[in-house]
């Protein structure tokens, strides 16, 4: 059995927040942020919203576009590093209830910014194994809740949002190619140290650096440029295709300079890359499905065209999927 994406959707909460509208105490500027990252705007969820609420809005659009009812979904795969609750219940089960899909199995998956690609491959494997026929794959994130608002080198980069796809069994679809990898030895380059079993919360704890996202930006930048190229080449080799055969590349949206460096090193025209970072910032595992939906909603993708999704993130993880629309 093969699989096909039958519907996509995304949701960006609230109005765009421009670089000029960031807190003045940050001592940053539109010029610095835009020239170093390509970001102009990001979105922040309202205090009443949680991660599963963003996921719900993206999922409803994906289901509508797939012409699929929530009651038909067999499995919900929810990729996030910013779940509603730190351990449990899983955000996937909260989404299952909000969607009205009591028949669906539901689980969270954390491979950080690569999480959507990992979840998509998990969905594909379940369909290949003929365990499930219709799977909802969601990437939903609220980075605004976990960044350190005293650290200008990270807090300006991230935003909130959600993207979702419906994956369905389809005998006539072409096989997908996939590459999932991790480099655990560099795990400490991107962390949120406090609150797990190594550093559990204690009564009287002061909320400080350990409670927030921390990143060795240069190390992650170099890693990203190297592994995005490696993953694209891996997928081309597996499929026996060349860059010319790929119509669109949808990369994790972390920094447009990373994508430009990957394009230059691998001799790939920039026009093939779908870029949405200017208006979203980095939305971690939501970034690929958001960019994919924006691409699909433009109506330019034709059946049979090839799309390559590729991501990297904390872990450090990386991976990609090459599929035919
Ligand atoms: O989703 C995966 C996770 N994230 C990533 O993929 C991010 C990967 N890394 C990057 O994209 C880049 O390394 C950053 C955008 C994070 C940083 O860009 P950079 O060109 O490597 O800047 P830098 O860290 O070398 O900093 C250069 C200067 C420093 O000042 P000095 O020491 O040269 O005086 C920083 O203090 O820029 C300063 N700086 C800022 N200035 C204004 C850092 N952040 C800011 C800021 N506004 N927001």
How would you characterize the overall build of this protein?
The chain has 325 residues and is an alpha/beta fold. The protein folds into two domains: 3-169, 3-Layer(aba) Sandwich (Peroxisomal Thiolase, Chain A, domain 1); 177-324, Peroxisomal Thiolase, Chain A, domain 1. It contains nine helices and 13 strands. The chain has helices at 30-37, 51-66, 91-99, 115-128, 152-155, 217-239, 256-265, 277-280, 287-297, and strands at 3-11, 17-18, 41-42, 75-79, 105-109, 134-142, 160-169, 177-182, 190-191, 214-215, 248-251, 306-313, 317-324. It has a five-stranded mixed sheet, sandwiched between helices. It is globular and about 55 Å long. The two termini are 16 Å apart. The model has no long low-confidence stretch (mean pLDDT 97). Bound molecules: oxa(dethia)-CoA. Residues 28, 32-33, 36-37, 113, 152-153, 156, 190, 215, 217-218, 220-221, 224, 254-255, 282, 313 line the site of oxa(dethia)-CoA.
Write a compact overview of the structure shown.
This protein is α/β, with parallel strands linked by helices.
């Amino acid at each position: 059995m093969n699989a096909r994406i039958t519907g996509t959707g995304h949701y960006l909460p609230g109005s765009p927040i421009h670089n000029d509208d960031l807190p003045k105490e940050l001592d940053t500027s539109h010029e610095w942020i835009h020239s170093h990252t390509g970001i102009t705007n990001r979105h922040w969820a309202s205090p009443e919203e949680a991660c599963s609420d963003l996921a719900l809005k993206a999922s409803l659009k994906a289901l509508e576009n797939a012409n699929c009812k929530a009651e038909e979904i067999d499995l919900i795969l929810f990729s996030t590093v910013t779940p509603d609750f730190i351990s449990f219940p899983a955000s996937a089960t909260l989404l299952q209830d909000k969607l009205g899909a009591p028949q669906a199995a539901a689980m969270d998956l954390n491979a950080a910014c690569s999480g959507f690609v990992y979840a998509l491959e998990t969905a594909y494997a379940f369909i290949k194994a003929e365990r499930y026929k219709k799977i909802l794959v969601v990437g939903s994130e609220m980075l605004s809740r976990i960044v350190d608002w005293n650290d200008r080198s990270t807090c300006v980069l991230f935003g909130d949002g959600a993207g979702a796809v419906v994956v369905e069994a389809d005998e006539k679809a072409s096989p997908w190619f996939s590459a999932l990898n991790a480099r655990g030895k560099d795990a400490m380059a991107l962390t949120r140290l406090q609150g797990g079993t190594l550093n559990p919360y204690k009564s009287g704890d002061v909320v400080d650096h350990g409670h927030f996202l921390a990143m060795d930006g240069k190390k992650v930048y170099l890693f990203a440029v190297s592994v995005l190229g490696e993953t694209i080449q891996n997928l081309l080799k597996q499929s026996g295709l060349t860059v010319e055969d790929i119509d669109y590349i949808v990369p994790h949206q972390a920094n447009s300079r990373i994508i430009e460096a990957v394009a230059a090193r691998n001799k790939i025209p920039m026009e093939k890359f779908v870029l949405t970072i200017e208006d979203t910032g980095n939305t971690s595992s939501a970034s690929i499905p958001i960019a994919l939906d924006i691409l699909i909603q433009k109506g330019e993708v034709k059946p049979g065209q090839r799309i390559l999704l590729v991501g990297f993130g904390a872990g450090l993880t990386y991976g990609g999927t090459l599929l035919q629309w």
